[in-house]
Amino acid sequence: MAKRKAQNSWVLGVVLASALILVAILLAVEPSFSALHGLLRAAGVMGYLAVFLSILSSAYLRELVKFFGRSFVQTHHILSLTALGLLVVHPLSAVFFSGTARVLVPNLSSLRNFVTRGGAPALYLLILAALAAWRRWPKTGWRVVHYLTYLAFLLGTAHAILLGTDGRFLVVRIVAILMAIAAVLVFVRRHYPAAQRKGQR
Q1: Is residue 109 within 8 Å of 67, Cβ to Cβ?
Q2: pTM
Q3: Distances from the Cα of 133 to the Cαs of 61, 95, 143, in angstroms?
Q4: Please, which residues have CB within 8 angstroms of residue 119's CB and are 6 or more apart in sequence?
Q5: pLDDT of residue 102
């Protein structure tokens, strides 16, 4: 098992390097006008990618444990916490950059404004999902709350496309939409068999 973990751990390094290269390319194509703005963008993109990878790794955790070894469970937890940490840095730097904490308040004036400013509610949903998993709320309740990660990712996708600096690029919008579709398909794949089994009882 240890040999297999050492042999396959390079895949994680490639994924991390690819994410960093992507962020570097985005910052090079559209330079930030300040270091703080660059931090905001980098944290947002990296956090967004980390949430997506966390969703995928959660859905295929059993298969990934076989590929990487038992230690991948810890890697999944680290990935999830990293995503949350980056997505906390993103709005806090936005607060500092804009000089107002209003960006942390969900905009309820209209559905479009709520979705466009979906970064704030997405962050709160992620925090709630993380707390549910950490505290292991009674019975299966924590799992239900933990599924809010999917909704948070969709809100984050809408926020990135409609308001994000990098969302103006067509290729970024296409990739983000494909990732959102993939997340929905993963959710359906995970829950349709369970619902089917429940209906057969």
Answers
A1: no
A2: 0.81
A3: 15, 28, 7
A4: 44, 87, 90, 91, 103, 155, 156, 159, 163
A5: 87
Please report the pLDDT score of residue 135 as a whole number. 63
Q: Cα Rg for the chain, rounded, in angstroms?
A: 18
**Cα–Cα distance between 109 and 58 in angstroms, integer?**
35
User: What would the 3-class secondary structure string for the chain be?
Assistant: CHHHHHHHCHHHHHHHHHHHHHHHHHHHHCCCCCHHHHHHHHHHHHHHHHHHHHHHHHHCHHHHHHHHCCCHHHHHHHHHHHHHHHHHHHHHHHHHHHCCHHHHCCCCCCHHHHHHCCHHHHHHHHHHHHHHHHHCCCCCHHHHHHCHHHHHHHHHHHHHHHCCHHHHCHHHHHHHHHHHHHHHHHHHHHHHHHHHHHHHC
Tell me how far apart the alpha carbons of residues 7 and 22 are, in angstroms, rounded to a whole number. Answer: 25
Phi-psi sector, 106: left (phi>0), alpha (psi -120 to 50), beta: beta
Across the range 70-74, mean pLDDT stands at 72
Q: Which residues contact 89 (CB under 8 A, 6 or more apart)?
A: 39, 43, 47
